[in-house]
């Protein structure tokens, strides 16, 4: 199954949590991260909290939907998520953006493609970057073209590149 995930957070330690999640989800060989966007700093979407860091990654797994989602939730809790609440400050929030083909055996509460992806152009841009880097079709997201594509919406404004992603930060230091 192909997947796309967004990572976000607005508390100190968020970028480090992103690196830890990427390293952790790949650690047992059950999934492969193929493309990772850079980390971007964005203004909050509809609230007065501190700016957010955002990143997306895409890949492939042989896990079923429930097992994959459980793995993602465990990584989220391990590296900073302290509860699910709309617009709560957080170190880490991981959202499944797409699961292709189809919804498979995902938990009932999980809707893919993510119901708010079409309303978040910056997230579409990051997902498009991760898809391009990983060779994963962006159309798996349920949106035909990413921002900036000749057939897609314009590139959004109001975000800053925080740091370029380096594949070195995913490597195990003991290897």
TrEMBL record:
Keywords annotated in UniProt: ATP-binding, Folate biosynthesis, Kinase, Nucleotide-binding, Transferase
Residue intervals passing through the bilayer: none
Described purpose of this protein according to its UniProt entry: Catalyzes the transfer of pyrophosphate from adenosine triphosphate (ATP) to 6-hydroxymethyl-7,8-dihydropterin, an enzymatic step in folate biosynthesis pathway.
Top-level taxon in the UniProt lineage: Bacteria
Biological pathway: Cofactor biosynthesis; tetrahydrofolate biosynthesis; 2-amino-4-hydroxy-6-hydroxymethyl-7,8-dihydropteridine diphosphate from 7,8-dihydroneopterin triphosphate: step 4/4
E.C. numbers: 2.7.6.3
Record flagged with keyword Manganese: no
GO function terms (MF aspect): 2-amino-4-hydroxy-6-hydroxymethyldihydropteridine diphosphokinase activity; ATP binding; kinase activity
Residues making up the signal peptide according to the UniProt record: none
Chain coiled-coil ranges: none
Family: Belongs to the HPPK family.
Domain 7,8-dihydro-6-hydroxymethylpterin-pyrophosphokinase: 5-121
Biological process according to GO: folic acid biosynthetic process; tetrahydrofolate biosynthetic process
Protein name: 2-amino-4-hydroxy-6-hydroxymethyldihydropteridine pyrophosphokinase
């Amino acid at each position: 199954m192909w997947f796309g995930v967004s990572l976000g957070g607005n508390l100190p330690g968020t970028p480090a949590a992103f690196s830890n999640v990427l390293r952790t989800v790949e650690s047992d060989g059950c999934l492969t991260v193929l493309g990772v966007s850079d980390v971007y700093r964005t203004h909050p979407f509809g609230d007065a909290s501190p700016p957010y860091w955002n990143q997306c990654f895409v890949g492939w797994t042989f896990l079923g939907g429930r097992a994959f989602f459980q793995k993602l939730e465990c990584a989220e809790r391990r590296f900073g998520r302290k509860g699910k609440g709309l617009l709560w400050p957080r170190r880490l929030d991981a959202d499944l953006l797409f699961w292709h083909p189809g919804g498979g055996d995902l938990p009932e509460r999980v809707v893919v493609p993510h119901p708010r992806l079409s309303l978040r152009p910056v997230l579409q841009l990051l997902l498009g970057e991760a898809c391009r880097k990983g060779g994963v079709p962006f159309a798996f997201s349920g949106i035909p073209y990413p921002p900036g594509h000749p057939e897609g919406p314009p590139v959004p404004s109001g975000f800053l590149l925080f740091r370029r992603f380096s594949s070195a930060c995913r490597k195990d230091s003991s290897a």
